[in-house]
Design a protein that fits this description.
Layout: E1 7-11, H1 14-22, E2 27-31, E3 48-54, E4 62-67, E5 73-77, E6 94-98, E7 101-104, E8 109-111, E9 120-124, E10 137-147, H2 153-158, H3 174-186, H4 190-193, E11 196-204
Parallel strand pairs: 1-6
Antiparallel strand pairs: 2-11, 3-4, 4-5, 6-10, 7-8, 7-9, 10-11
Length: about 220
């Protein structure tokens, strides 16, 4: 099954929006949602990653395989899409960014990441941003699965850590800074859990400095 690339929404906080706009954020990590183990799997060590590739049955999908070490294998489709896949001559999927936003009394869209001085009637959570209000579109250039704690120092920089509190006098390494960023979003024990994560690499295809939108 072939077809054009698809668009999917993705949420980012204001600091990460600024990192994307500056070109310093080209990666993001999102937890792979694995099903709970069944009673017959309780003596296994849990799900472990096997491989990821384009689905043979539907090349528009990008899937990851996991096994429980006891003969059970599951395939999970990446909810954030896929990169371009040359053998099938398919375009990459795109992500349209949701961020905290609001409307002025003139129904012009403002974005919290810009720290605007305009009078906004009410700030609205990113989850409620409609497609027409989004100003940033990203194209997937890479997808892979890895354990969270396997992140490298270069990947921390690609995660936009320079915009997320990096301070060489406070942290011994950029990985420690990224750990604190992750825990601030997912909770104090989330780093220790070391989950499998989707590693999405992207490039911006819509200009970040486009004029503010007006409500249709």
């Amino acid at each position: 099954m072939t077809g054009p690339g698809r668009e999917r929404p993705i949420l980012f906080k204001s600091a990460m929006i600024r990192a994307i706009q500056s070109g310093q954020k080209t990666q993001t990590r999102r937890i792979v949602k694995l099903p709970p183990l069944q009673p017959w799997q309780l003596y296994s060590k849990g799900w472990h990653f096997i491989e990821s590739n384009h689905s043979i049955d539907d090349c528009n999908n990008y899937i990851a395989g996991f096994g429980d070490g006891r003969g059970t294998i599951i395939n999970i489709k990446c909810p954030y899409g896929k990169p371009a896949f040359a053998p099938f001559d398919l375009p990459a999927d795109r992500l349209w960014v949701r961020e905290t936003w609001g409307l002025t009394v003139e129904d012009t869209v403002c974005y919290r990441a810009d720290e605007p001085r305009s009078i906004v009637t009410r700030w609205r959570p990113s989850i409620f941003m409609p497609r027409w209000a989004s100003r940033i579109t990203l194209e997937n250039v890479g997808v892979r699965v890895e354990r969270l704690q396997d992140i490298s120092a270069p990947d921390c920089w690609a995660e936009g850590i320079a915009h997320a509190g990096w301070d060489p006098e406070r942290y011994g390494s950029v990985v420690e800074c990224y750990r604190d960023l992750w825990q601030s979003i997912h909770g104090p024990d989330s780093w220790r859990a070391n989950p499998d994560v989707w590693v999405l690499e992207f490039r911006q295809v819509a200009p970040s400095n486009q004029p503010t939108a007006t409500k249709p």
